[in-house]
Amino acid sequence: MAHEKLGGFLAVPNVQELALTWNGSGEQLPERYIRTEEAGAVESIAGSGIPVVDLGRLLDPASSAEELAVLGAACQHSGFFQLINHGVPDEVIHDIRRDITEFFKLPLEAKKVHAQLPDSVEGYGQAFVFSETQKLDWADMLYLMVRPTESRNARFWPAQPPSFTDSVDKFSAEAARVASSLLRFMAADMGLEQPERLLEMFAGQPQTMRVTYYPPCREVNKVIGLSPHSDATCLTLLLHVNEVQGLQIKKDGKWVSVDPMDGALVVNIGDILEILSNGRYKSIEHRAVMHPDKERISAAMFHQPCPNTTVGPLPELLKNGGRARYKSVDYAEYMKLFFSAKFDGLKSHFDGLRIYIVDSQASTSRGIM
Ligand code: OGA
Ligand code: NI
């Protein structure tokens, strides 16, 4: 999820169009989408399964300390939580949901005006397709650089519906506010003396957004909507654009469903925050699965560090003789390694993170380096 460019993404069929004809046909599922082993191999457990954190209680001095313990436990053990009382106005959520839904309703030709270019993940299409034989996800996406505003490329931003940009702007500002608020409390939970310590690394608050459109699939046990991965970011805020369930997180080797909770945002710790916290916080592997007859749409707002940030355990956390569990690299190098790991066909973003883990015995790195 970088601002980095790279050559060689391959164009693949539009899944929304494919689903439209295929779901109503008697035809077999095209081979490149068949992932029966992956989709069916691991037991999945129903249930919302993740903690609930109340931002209102965190901000209220009377309940802050108590809720900080809830937040800390959620970040350390679960890596994912539902955030309630986040203060994002209903109207802002309503407008972005409406405009995203409208965008995907446009005819294919109108959406394709914003199609990805061969050397970039930005725009409408599918990311990370490197080979003709690679298995494909059952989803289309729109990936946008949102902040800083200079990083935007207007050609990828939907012109229809006309309020799209304004709605994203308003939601983006709210998401940035929520993320900064959370980062201050996380700094406190980590025992950092300066509450702004984590926030400093996100000055200007770089943000990207991935909107994913998962068409229905009549053979849900054969396809994956979004391949297992962890987010190569700091903090992700996920908005369910509609209320269809599909997100699953890996817990004790099993996939656990995360049900959308009315009015909540799903927050998850990304790889970078796991590294900064020296492993105190967990970046958890997750994926998305399909519904047999309902479309599902989600919007993930990724919060990234500034380009000059060092991605490595915070020195303050190593003061009392603690050992660094990850290597330190600068952010540009981190993203380069992330993309080369992807290109080398490592199974998921999560394997990318493993590159940085220092072996507990020998203090050397594991992985592909
Ligand atoms: C993502 C992501 C989950 C979902 O975009 O990184 O994990 O439910 N999305 O769409
Ligand atoms: Ni993700």
From TrEMBL:
PROSITE patterns attached to this UniProt entry: FE2OG_OXY
Keyword Metal-binding in annotation: yes
Origin superkingdom: Eukaryota
InterPro entries: DIOX_N, IPNS-like_FE2OG_OXY, IPNS-like_sf, Oxoglu/Fe-dep_dioxygenase_dom, Plant_2OG-oxidoreductases
Keyword set includes Transit peptide: no
Keywords carried by this UniProt record: Iron, Metal-binding, Oxidoreductase
GO molecular function: metal ion binding; oxidoreductase activity
Residue ranges of every copy of the Fe2OG dioxygenase domain listed in the record: 205-305
Family as reported in the entry's similarity comment: Belongs to the iron/ascorbate-dependent oxidoreductase family.
Protein name: Fe2OG dioxygenase domain-containing protein
